[in-house]
Amino acid sequence: MGQQPIVAAVIGATGYTGSEVVRLLSAHPLAQVCTVTSERQAGRPLRGACPWLASDLVLEPFDAESLEANVAFLCQEAGFAMEFLPALQRRMRVIDLSADFRLSRIDDYETWYGRPHTAAQCKPWPVYGLCESKAAEEIAAATAIANPGCYPTATLLALAPLSDLIDGIPVVDAKSGVSGAGRSKTETDYLFTELAGGFKPYGVTGHRHTPEIEQELGRRVRFTPHLIPAARGICSTIHVPLRAGAGRADVLGAWQSAYRDRPFVEIRTEGWPSTKEVQGSNRCVLAAAFDERTGHAVLVSVIDNLVKGAAGQAIQNMNLMFGFPEDTGLPMAGLWP
Amino acid sequence: MGQQPIVAAVIGATGYTGSEVVRLLSAHPLAQVCTVTSERQAGRPLRGACPWLASDLVLEPFDAESLEANVAFLCQEAGFAMEFLPALQRRMRVIDLSADFRLSRIDDYETWYGRPHTAAQCKPWPVYGLCESKAAEEIAAATAIANPGCYPTATLLALAPLSDLIDGIPVVDAKSGVSGAGRSKTETDYLFTELAGGFKPYGVTGHRHTPEIEQELGRRVRFTPHLIPAARGICSTIHVPLRAGAGRADVLGAWQSAYRDRPFVEIRTEGWPSTKEVQGSNRCVLAAAFDERTGHAVLVSVIDNLVKGAAGQAIQNMNLMFGFPEDTGLPMAGLWP
Amino acid sequence: MGQQPIVAAVIGATGYTGSEVVRLLSAHPLAQVCTVTSERQAGRPLRGACPWLASDLVLEPFDAESLEANVAFLCQEAGFAMEFLPALQRRMRVIDLSADFRLSRIDDYETWYGRPHTAAQCKPWPVYGLCESKAAEEIAAATAIANPGCYPTATLLALAPLSDLIDGIPVVDAKSGVSGAGRSKTETDYLFTELAGGFKPYGVTGHRHTPEIEQELGRRVRFTPHLIPAARGICSTIHVPLRAGAGRADVLGAWQSAYRDRPFVEIRTEGWPSTKEVQGSNRCVLAAAFDERTGHAVLVSVIDNLVKGAAGQAIQNMNLMFGFPEDTGLPMAGLWP
Amino acid sequence: MGQQPIVAAVIGATGYTGSEVVRLLSAHPLAQVCTVTSERQAGRPLRGACPWLASDLVLEPFDAESLEANVAFLCQEAGFAMEFLPALQRRMRVIDLSADFRLSRIDDYETWYGRPHTAAQCKPWPVYGLCESKAAEEIAAATAIANPGCYPTATLLALAPLSDLIDGIPVVDAKSGVSGAGRSKTETDYLFTELAGGFKPYGVTGHRHTPEIEQELGRRVRFTPHLIPAARGICSTIHVPLRAGAGRADVLGAWQSAYRDRPFVEIRTEGWPSTKEVQGSNRCVLAAAFDERTGHAVLVSVIDNLVKGAAGQAIQNMNLMFGFPEDTGLPMAGLWP
Q: Which of A51, B45, C236, D103 is most buried, judging by how many CB atoms fall within 10 Å of its CB?
């Protein structure tokens, strides 16, 4: 190679998104994780908290002042990035996997998250990093990225290119594996025994990813997510009324225009994708049908919520920021069975 | 007591609906299974094909002429009931768990099932047995019942009472455990390894339960089902535009009127039900929210597809036909965890 | 009929064993739950804590003085029965589902549980209630029962009748669904995401069910349990060196002698049982092979850990205590699929 | 690099081991899959049969004469390698993932597999490729490799180094995810609905991996496998009587000597590994305890049956055969959750 790998810090490395950043970067030829932090487990080998990573790194306490890296992945709870990102982005590239900077209207944030935004003056405001919806240059130029939420990623990749076709309110009925809840939800509700063999809706009218989808789409949506007894995966099923005359071919055409040359979006024209196909992969698979009887298109979008919906897209953003080919070090193939 | 139990025959006892009829009747105080049939395994102890039933019955070949019973549960593939129900209902009560007689318009059947209906002249035409939507007398008077499909049961229990409130096309996004596919789908697609850990839509615009829902509702719906990695359960999530001025209270009020005194429909006003709560139970749990932003009500209906969605409702119909209390011998409590 | 049902109290009704006692008794013709208690949720409807039970009972605080019932099921954490059983058994029958009184040698208790036994003087000492290993009279005469552990139940039903055949140390390699850990293990380790798709041993040499098995067997065993990604079920696989000349027929013969007329033990002579067959059932299925090459018999015993391994066996004990037929109100058929 | 990648052919690419070879090689910097074959699906894009691979290859019929590659991975049913390997190994390196050449005594093969071995004269006889038990030179020099079975890999990595410590018959109680059964077992027994939520033993005294373990160990073992409701993973739990005086430290010492400098064997000294830690990884994690009460060591060995137990080890063998570093292109980190 000759090229020196860039140095990455993973802030909050023991949760599901943080450890996934570490896992994916362990196969990245141009980046290397040198710092992993944990608030509660500092001093412990990463191997103790995350034995699957087979890593020799040791967890450190986070210290904003002394942190040195080319890029920092912030994988902490809500509020952390508000506190540290504004200063950190002056010294290194920052990719925030939380929701702190996803909503550009402070009012929206405060309404949906029910708390004040303490970094409303942050400048430059992080770029919303849905890679396929931005010019590569915009991400390349960003000092900080607000990495999109998992449901918005799956939903926007399907809906965003269709603005000229939609005539009415899209109904987004989404389903997610349990890892979306994170690793620290140590409540009865998330026990294996409470979830195995059952499924249910949650956040039926008030899920916080709703305004994120609406902001990027410029359009109101009806959104309800469900919890599915699988570890990973999001399937967003979108029932969308099309304008008169439009049909499946228009949907496929719009997608093909939008995603030409984008390695991670696959347009499936035969059969319906399972989330299992993208387990561990950074791909998003799209498929569509048209229901003539009701005039709705039905869009299906599947991703791995921890990869394209979190850590993988974060690394895709890193690739774009550092001028690497977009797909460097990111898996295309899913783990099956 | 003192009452002699009625005698039931289960035709096609080794599949999931047939064996569930046997299981449920084993705890029924007023009915007893005396005949179990199987096309392929006649002569074998039921215990060999279905060890979980711990039964001493022996599988017999089906012989329409010689069959004697007070009630026959037809749990066979499509087409079987068309052939045998018309004659059988002259000699005993018949409850058909297939789709053969669910659609009363022959055209609908032939369009959606893609085959001719060979018993279009059947008289009397079996009564569509969604217990809670019919007067008890109508079912009591029936000689044959077309037992509803699993998705229609969950969906209609939520939607049917709301006809005055709906203003637009309901979007029915349903999710089902894998047992809905039956026990004879020995294809790669239904292997444990292909389904565990993933989920996906199927029959996206053409599922055969669509016309069944529409027939009973008298209204067009947008319907898509999904396959979820669980053995049992259906969750029907229905996004329905309400007429101006209507809201959650109207939905709850309509349900309360419709289901007063019906033991198996529970209206949940706090929290959202999981399919796991009704595992093995004949209950249906309903819940609703109103999304002011889009003017949609969101209805959630969960059942066990093999119980309230098949064998349990069949027995509920039997109870009504024979004048037993509706809930005789049927489990209210679900199996958890 | 005509018989007045006995009145049962379930102390600690919101955990997995307590709620299972409530569920099973809801179908029992001769007993009725009138009191359900909870330390933390007193005052709340049982339906709120355990929606699957569809119960109208309200959780009460436990008050030993005022409790009235014919039988109390103690479903609390370790130590609770030590405190309350000695007095309670003077006023009603008591069935303790904890381990407090399973070990009759106080030394064993203190060694394996690492804490003092505070009720060593309890008289009469509760009878160890492995129903099939005791004369019905002994249980009928007991004022209190120490209900066996789940692993000991599965293991002892297989091994206890074979004492004349064993020559060496039985290796008991057991596997359990996750519900064995209870409903209050709100630790990362028991999250759905940490357990789905994986399996592992635990308590490899020091599991507390070891001395319970050894006490009842009068013989040392090598015991290791494993955690399996299923909600319910125990499979105990026992590799046991037989004395020279003994083989499979001797094993089957010993079982047949021991379990003649016992409804809940099934000896399977063809095929190997899955835990799934006994899901929700009070049955134990036994099967055996002989490995001539090594001189070991291989015994397999499957139960539902929450039914025959806990709540079901507790009710079986209740039946015997009150002179009801042993299988009254207890399910034989398992829930499948 | 400058180094030209070697060219690999995957014979039987649509099953679970074949597709896993393709998946793993897609991330290998020094090898490239150029030919994928399928008996039944020749002519179809690999993407159609295995959408998760996101591959542009097209399935070809297998033609031994015209096949060109540096290395061929044989991922076919039993008997295929007997027919083709002897000739193929004269023209390219061959790695056979079936059992055809694992047993070097033809008698053993015919006894346990119940069929004649039709290539008993094959020369050179393929080298048994348990990488960590062979000198790298021996594998490097081989023209053909008999890639070990999944249970033998997990079991032998634990037991092989302990020959001086064992005094008696090791009891190997193994558990496997369902993918071990392959992708073509389209029988009722392997349906999702039949397996989810349950677990059971199989092949209790006659599993064909028994003689493979015994051959490599030079010692008789008692072996029983179990089917666990997970897609991947093997946990081999081995209860082994140690010679007097030996204990845990001796076991750990023997492992450390054997696996110094071997990247894929991890010796865990705290806690017990779950199969989930090695999901998708080529690692094997070993742990041990000593049960003083019975004089047994308890060894635990976990692998991913499709990676270290099949496709990963096959590629590890390829690496050794072509002089690449042993761990080239093979994942260390597991997929979690």
A: C236
- Tell me which of C178, C187, C224, C303 to substitute to probe the interface with D (most D C-beta atoms closer than 10 Å): C224
CB C49 within 8 A of CB C335: no
The one catalytic residue in D50, D150, D235, D284 is D150
pTM of the model: 0.98
Quick check: B26 and C333 CB within 8 A?
yes
Residues B70, B5 contacting (CB under 8 angstroms): no
All structural domains of chain C with their residue ranges: 6-148+309-321, 151-304
End-to-end CA, chain B: 34
Do the chains contact at B271 and C26, CB–CB below 8 Å?
no
Question: Is the per-residue pLDDT at A98 higher than 70?
Answer: yes
- pLDDT surpasses 50 at D91: yes
What is the bridge-based pairing of β-strands B71-74 and B93-96? parallel
Q: Looking at the partner chain, which of C169, C197, C296 has a beta carbon nearest the beta carbon of D230?
A: C197
- ∠ CA(C91), CA(C97), CA(C98), 5° rounding? 105
**Chain A environment of B169 (Cβ under 8 Å):** 294, 296
Span C143-167, average pLDDT: 98
C335/B335 touch (CB, cutoff 8 Å), yes or no: yes
Count of helices and strands (H, E) across chain D:
10, 14
CATH class of B151-304: alpha beta
Residues A310-334, buried b or exposed e (16+ Cβ, 10 A)? bbbbbbbbbbbbeebebbbbbbbbb
Q: Which of A294, A300, A302 lies at the smallest CB-CB distance from B220?
A: A294
Distances (CA, A) of B153 to B147, B223, B302, B314, B332: 9, 14, 10, 12, 17
pLDDT in tens, D146-201: 999 999 999 999 999 999 999 999 999 999 999 999 999 879 999 999 999 999 99
Of B278, B332, B336, the CB nearest to C26: B332
In degrees, to the nearest 5, what angle opens at C-alpha A297 toward C-alphas A292 and A298?
115
Give the best residue of B274, B275, B292 to mutate against chain A (max A CB count within 10 A). Answer: B274
Q: Would you call D150 a catalytic residue per the annotation?
A: yes
Q: Chain C interface, mutation test: which of A192, A276, A306, most C Cβ atoms within 10 Å? A: A192
Interface A-B, measured as beta-carbon pairs within 8 A, has a size of: 159
- The superfamily CATH assigns to domain A6-148+309-321 is NAD(P)-binding Rossmann-like Domain (3.40.50.720)
- Residue C159 reports pLDDT greater than 70: yes
Residue with tokens 């089957």: C252
With a cut of 60, say whether residue A299 has pLDDT above it.
yes
One DSSP character per residue, C36-91 reads EE-SSSTTSBHHHH-GGG----BEE---TTT---SEEEE---TTHHHHHHHHHTTT
pLDDT one-digit tens code per residue, D233-292: 999 999 999 999 999 999 999 999 999 999 999 999 999 999 999 999 999 999 999 999
Contacts of B192 in chain D (CB under 8 A): 178, 190-192, 194-196, 229, 231
How many angstroms from the chain centroid is the CA of residue C206?
A: 19
Distances (CA, A) of C100 to A135, C3, C91, C202, C235: 67, 34, 19, 22, 24
Q: What is the pLDDT of residue C37?
A: 98
Nearest CB to C337: which of B179, B273, B276? B179
Residue-wise pLDDT for C124-137, tens only, equals 999 999 999 988 89
How does strand D6-11 pair with strand D71-74? parallel
Spatial separation of the C-alpha atoms in residues D232 and D280, rounded to whole Å? 9
Question: Could you tell me which of A66, A99, A70, A72 has the C-alpha nearest to residue A13?
Answer: A72
What is the ipTM for the molecules in this complex? 0.97
Q: pLDDT category, A1, cuts 50, 70, 90? A: very low
User: Given this model, what pLDDT does residue C3 score?
Assistant: 75
Q: Which residue of C has its CA nearest to A52?
A: C194
d(C-alpha C307, C-alpha B280), whole Å: 15
